């Protein structure tokens, strides 16, 4: 099975496991990843960790599949299946799988080894990236004439700025973990082999908090990008007010009654 889920009450680790292809994604794998993340979205877990088994996060789009699309019949069928629909209808299946999903709960990428081409796009799709010091990103598909089709050209400049995004994308060079951390492509570096454990520890830290507020603040950070301050404040207020009504006043009551004083949760 190319995708599996290790489940606990609060944290699910979604694992892609296709070691013979360094976790490159073919259509079956893409569909399995989407199904796993939709199960997480609608299930009881609070935070997901996304990890590639076998020493690599993901080597990108399966190039053997890409080569087969030179056949006009196969190519048109594939592109039609993965195209964006006209209007406001949703399109949940990208070539790499979950890259078009807009989840309401956090996903932490645990990056070991290569996260390149489409694999880098999946890493960028995650809310937070925990990288092993030996891991790396890169638009390695540059050498084969394959474009970024799973959000790379959208998310990369939002994280690192337009100039740096252009330099990384157009040169197709290897971006080592330390540089990723320095420029905002990784939020935490850990020793080799510890990315999954560190990401899961972070996930449990997040899961222990009241989740209405976690999700409201996450939603506001994402939704207000590019807005004016005034418009962003309106969105923040609407998202926050709903969460406070559902759980914030109750939390304040616990503090009033003696819980959580002096930094003790």
What report would you give on this structure?
This protein is α/β, with parallel strands linked by helices and 265 residues long. The protein has two domains: 3-207, 2-enoyl-CoA Hydratase, Chain A, domain 1 (Alpha-Beta Complex); 211-263, Helix Hairpins, CATH 1.10.287. It is 46% helix and 15% strand. The protein is built from ten helices and nine strands. The strands form two sheets. Strands 1-2-3-4-6-9 form a six-stranded mixed beta sheet, sandwiched between helices. The chain has a three-stranded mixed beta sheet with strand order 5-7-8. α1 (27-42) links the parallel β2 and β3 (47-52). It is globular, with a radius of gyration of 19 Å. The model has no long low-confidence stretch (mean pLDDT 89).
SSE diagram, text form:
Elements: E1 3-7, E2 11-16, H1 27-42, E3 47-52, H2 63-68, H3 72-82, E4 107-111, E5 114-116, H4 118-125, E6 128-132, E7 136-138, H5 152-160, H6 162-171, E8 174-176, H7 177-183, E9 188-190, H8 195-207, H9 211-223, H10 229-256
Parallel strand pairs: 2-3, 3-4, 4-6, 5-7, 6-9
Antiparallel strand pairs: 1-2, 7-8
């Amino acid at each position: 099975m190319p995708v599996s889920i290790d489940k606990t009450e609060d944290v699910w680790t979604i694992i892609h496991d296709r070691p013979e292809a360094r976790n490159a994604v073919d259509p079956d794998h893409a569909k399995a990843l989407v199904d796993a993340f939709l199960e997480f979205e609608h299930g009881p877990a609070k935070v997901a960790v996304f990890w590639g088994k076998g020493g690599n996060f993901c080597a990108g789009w399966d190039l053997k599949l890409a080569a087969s699309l030179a056949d006009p019949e196969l190519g048109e069928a594939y592109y039609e299946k993965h195209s964006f629909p006209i209007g406001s209808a949703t399109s949940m299946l990208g070539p790499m799988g979950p890259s078009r999903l807009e989840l309401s709960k956090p996903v932490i990428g645990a990056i070991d080894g290569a996260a390149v081409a489409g694999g880098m796009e999946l890493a960028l799709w995650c809310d937070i990236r925990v990288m092993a010091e030996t891991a790396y990103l890169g638009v390695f598909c540059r050498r084969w004439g394959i474009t970024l089709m799973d959000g790379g050209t959208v998310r990369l400049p939002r994280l690192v700025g337009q100039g740096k995004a252009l330099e990384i994308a157009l040169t197709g060079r290897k971006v080592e973990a330390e540089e990723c951390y320095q420029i905002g492509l990784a939020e935490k570096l850990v020793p080799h082999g510890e990315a999954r454990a560190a990401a899961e520890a972070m996930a449990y830290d997040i899961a222990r908090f009241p989740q209405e507020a976690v999700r409201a603040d996450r939603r506001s950070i994402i939704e207000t990008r590019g807005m004016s301050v005034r418009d962003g404040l309106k969105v923040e207020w609407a998202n926050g007010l709903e969460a406070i009504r559902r759980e914030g006043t109750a939390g304040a009551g616990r503090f009033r009654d003696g819980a959580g004083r002096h930094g003790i949760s």
